[in-house]
Design brief:
The complex is a heterotrimer of chains A (about 110), B (about 130) and C (about 325). Chain A has a 5-stranded mixed β-sheet with strand order 1-2-3-4-5. Chain A is globular and about 30 Å long. Helix content of chain A is about 35%, strand content about 35%. Chain A is of the alpha/beta class and about 110 residues long. Chain A has one domain: Transcription Regulator spoIIAA (2-Layer Sandwich), CATH 3.30.750. Chain B has about 130 residues and is of the alpha+beta class. Chain B has one domain: 2-Layer Sandwich (Heat Shock Protein 90). In chain B, a hairpin with a 4-residue loop joins strand 2 and strand 3. In chain B, helix 1 runs antiparallel to helix 2 and helix 2 runs antiparallel to helix 4. The radius of gyration of chain B is 14 Å and the shape is globular. In chain B, about 35% of the residues are buried. Chain C has about 325 residues and is an alpha+beta fold. Chain C is built from 9 helices and 12 strands. In chain C, a hairpin with a 4-residue loop joins strand 4 and strand 5. The chains are: A alpha/beta (about 110), B alpha+beta (about 130), C alpha+beta (about 325). At the A-C interface, helix 2 of A face loops of C. Chain A: This is Anti-sigma factor antagonist. Chain A: Pfam families: STAS. Chain A: Keywords: Phosphoprotein.
Chain lengths: ~110, ~130, ~325
Amino acid sequence: MDLTIEVAHDEHEQVRKVVLIGEIDAYTAPKLKETIVPLTEENGVEVVIDMHAISYMDSTGLGVFISALKSTKEHGSSLTFMNPQERVYRLFKITGLTEIMNIQTDYTVRGGM
Amino acid sequence: MDFQSCVTITKEWDIVGARQLGRDIAKKIGFGTVDQARIATAISELARNIYLYAGTGKICFETMDNLNSKGLRIIAIDNGPGIQDLTQVMTDGFSTSGGLGAGLPGVRRLMDEFDVHSQEGEGTEINVVKWLR
Amino acid sequence: MSTLKLDVNSYRDLLKQYIEYQDEQALYRAEQFSKQAIQHNISPDEIVDVYIQSLLDLYPDLSPSVKHSLNFLLETMISFGMAYQEFQALREKQLELQSEISVAANMQQTLLSTTKPNIPNMDLGAISAPAKQMNGDYYHFVEDEQGSLGIAIADVIGKGVPAALCMSMIKYSMESFPHSRMEPGVILEGMNRVVERNVDPSMFVTMFYGLYDGRNHEFHYSSAGHEPGFYYCAAEDAFYDIEAEGLVLGVDRKVTYHQYVQQVAPGDMVILLTDGVTECRVNDRFIEREEICEVLSQYKHLSAQEMTEQVYRYFERLQDFHLRDDFTMIILRRDV
């Protein structure tokens, strides 16, 4: 029941790659929020979150991503989610967030991470 | 006030010096071994706070000799950053030492009287007294 | 510090008895002594001090090096004494908090109570159980003169006190709507504006609103990102997901909610729930929605209320009687 967060500055200056591994729940969400939200506060950056190694996420995780999304609108940055597992994707889908969030499920589009 | 003597705190080793002087004075006033140990522990806490958060300051001792009671007053003074939220610092379990009973609430328990004044950016003065019973 | 001065004399006598005879009785009394000391808030360093005094009384000629070593022991106990007193203070504070929370939980129960209306030819069941003392789930029934029944079910992200606070806001906002027939989409749009204005950016609420029209047996509904409920079709003896698209409340001020209609035949059921039911995790296994349907199916001969209770019991047992999330389920069945 742990979450590892790896942040890498891409060769493109404006991209922040974040690889998440583990579970996002009420215990790990605060740590995630501390990392993700500040990244979105820089004008023009694209924050790309690799979700493929997230095996579980509850609604507190969605809350973190919603506040990150609100922050991108405020600061002129953008947010993309890559390859969430089916169960995690379902949560985005049910809550209607797939309509307003950029979620990529095709591994070939941006090259495997 | 009979006499006042001070120890300047600038390095960790000075904490030991302050404890030593405090214990000697406490012994002279007539405190028993438990109270001596408690007073020394309180001095440690006060001196360590100065060393960790203000960098430099001093611990002063005064013997109190009224008509009907004797005691020891300890004053810790520094010109450090001051304490932003005194209520929070005085709350049990808040101490950065991870709730080991230490911190200022611990000092308050070890002593009989406790008073603190702090101004942000100017420093902190903590004034405590232990009475001889 | 201590409310009772330790009785040095009786401790000394006890110690003397033990040193002479090493009998179990003295040890038993020592145990009683330490329990009493704890009861009177006497800290460990004080016990060591009493021990040292007793020892010096019994052996005045104790070698100086042993005496020094005893003082050394005392010194190492002082911080334990402080930690012990802090523990006591924190324990008192915790009890205080606990009683405050249970008062709040009672208040919330009164606040959120909704009467289950009695509607001819309709069987209604509802259950809501918080994971902790306070509930972040909410449901509410509104009945109007034309024989329509409005059903609201909502789930605040997270649980405990923060979720419960947000829930109270939902309840008051819902009450500010006129009690006559309201379109589900309109209600959700109104609630969305309330939540968006009043909560922290990382907080959101999912909500489902359904309106059952008793005259033509149509069920109109909209969903704000809420866990899909089930529709049971009696003729086919099959469960279907109640699919409805819509964004959760509190994210985008300008969102609109699509309204759907379901014709309800005699014996059909509408089952609404919160994700405390579907997100229920047992060890490393998730509850699949099919499993919920199987459980529902197993109890479908019972009344709607008994069904909700049986399903709740099933999940309670599955989670070892320790709910991970608030659990709410509503069942509506058309009888005739």
